[in-house]
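Weekly sync, protein design subgroup
Attendees: M.S., D.O., the rotation student, P.L. (late)

Item 1: inverse folding check
M.S. brought a backbone from last month's batch and wanted to see whether the design step gives back something sensible before we order anything. D.O. pointed out we never logged the input encoding, so this time it goes straight into the notes. Structure tokens as presented (424 positions):
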């Protein structure tokens, strides 16, 4: 009989350990690969948005020597004067060889339609300028701006460009004369929405988002904290409270558009509140963020050690005194963190606000909670659907502003958590 080969116990253990170590290395490699892939996709996404949007932060402007003709400007009726004719005449003066009606129309298209309004504001603020010739920087049309930023290559055929060869020649002459410059786009931050890309801004959407978040915060934070305190500290433990807890957890997972349908049915159709107003938007977002705040607040209350409650009750404090003087101050950092995260989610919501009419085209900047308004995500949605090439960069720029606001709110939540959190 042949002798059987005997394998010692340590050898078997070593073989098993080697196999387990290989599996652990593979698992760590898979996890690291997933993290690297996620970071790469994130960098590609942010890089693509930044590459398309950074050009929106500067705008092309044209320097014109505008003669404020007294024949056109009646001091007693400056609001209805023909300022557009003054802008055209100053532009024609730079190109005296342009005499045909068609060429004059093409030449006047180099300047934005908003130039007349800028001139009107200047004259109405200083009527004593009438009769003089003033150098005025006016916005270039979005087509000229896109050409100067390289989005319309001059090498491409004329039929494939929105700017023709004559206009390119005129733009080159203005550039050589130092009459075209790229300046910081203050209009993007100071104006409301517009059909003209060079006149469109995000101020109306930012103010609408601000008013909406104020309503959401004022309603959701006290209601959510009060509900969490009652459920955690006062409510009896029975099947009814269990049912409430289950429903709160379910509400946190409901698609946001359902809250929009609820707001449409209750706040608009039943209560007849103003459509497309920040007040209604805040009410809808309050319903959406309440479950998140309640869950975060309850988790913060549970994290307070029972010894705190027992010590307060042991020295004669009532249940309400124990909660208000000891439990709530210790749980408040976690509650604030959950609230900020809920507000950040509300800031980025679009679907529920579309259902209550905040998708309307709003030119004026809202000045109150009941004024027609839109919010930044809805503004991005509207611009993304616009056919003009200039709205592409403004869409990306608005996304960059929204991401900056969201990162700021999340950074505030992390700061509050690290600064005020207590470890037991």
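Designed sequence read out in the meeting:
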């Amino acid at each position: 009989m042949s002798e059987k080969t005997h394998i010692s116990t340590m050898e078997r253990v070593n073989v098993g350990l080697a196999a387990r170590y290989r599996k652990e290395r593979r698992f760590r490699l898979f996890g690291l690969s997933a993290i690297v892939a996620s970071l790469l996709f994130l960098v590609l996404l942010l890089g693509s948005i930044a590459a398309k949007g950074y050009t929106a932060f500067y705008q092309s402007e044209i320097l014109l020597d505008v003669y404020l003709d007294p024949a056109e400007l009646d001091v007693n009726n400056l609001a209805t004067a023909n300022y557009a004719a003054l802008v055209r005449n100053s532009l024609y003066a730079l190109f005296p060889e342009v005499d045909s009606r068609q060429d004059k129309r093409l030449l006047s298209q180099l300047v934005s339609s908003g130039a007349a309004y800028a001139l009107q504001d200047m004259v109405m603020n200083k009527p004593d300028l009438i009769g003089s010739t003033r150098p005025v920087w006016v916005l270039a049309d979005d087509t000229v701006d896109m050409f100067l930023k390289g989005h319309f290559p001059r090498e491409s055929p004329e039929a494939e460009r929105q700017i023709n060869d004559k206009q390119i020649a005129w733009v080159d002459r203005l550039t050589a004369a130092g009459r075209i410059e790229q300046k910081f786009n203050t209009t993007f931050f100071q104006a409301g929405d517009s059909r003209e890309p060079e006149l469109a801004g995000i101020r109306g959407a930012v103010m609408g988002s601000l008013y909406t978040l104020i309503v959401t915060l004022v309603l959701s934070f006290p209601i959510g904290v009060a509900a969490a305190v009652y459920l955690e500290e006062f409510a009896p433990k029975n099947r009814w409270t269990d049912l409430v807890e289950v429903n709160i957890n379910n509400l946190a997972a409901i698609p946001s558009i359902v809250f929009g349908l609820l707001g449409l049915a209750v706040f608009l159709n039943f209560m007849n509140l103003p459509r497309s107003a920040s007040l209604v938007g805040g009410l809808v977002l309050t319903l959406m963020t309440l479950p998140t705040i309640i869950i975060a607040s309850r988790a913060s209350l549970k994290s307070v050690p029972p010894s705190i409650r027992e010590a307060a009750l042991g020295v004669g404090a009532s249940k309400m005194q124990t909660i208000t003087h000891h439990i709530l101050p210790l749980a408040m950092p976690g509650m604030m963190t959950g609230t900020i995260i809920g507000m950040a989610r509300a800031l980025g919501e679009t679907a529920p606000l579309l259902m209550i009419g905040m998708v309307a085209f709003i030119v004026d900047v809202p000045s109150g909670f009941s004024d027609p308004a839109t919010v930044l995500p809805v503004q991005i949605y509207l611009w993304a659907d616009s056919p003009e090439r200039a709205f592409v960069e403004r869409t990306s720029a608005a996304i960059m502003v929204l991401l900056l606001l969201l990162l700021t709110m999340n950074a505030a939540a992390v700061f509050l958590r690290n600064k005020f959190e207590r470890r037991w």
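Discussion: Residues 57-184 form one domain. The two ends are 69 Å apart (CA to CA).
Action: P.L. to compare against the previous round before Friday.
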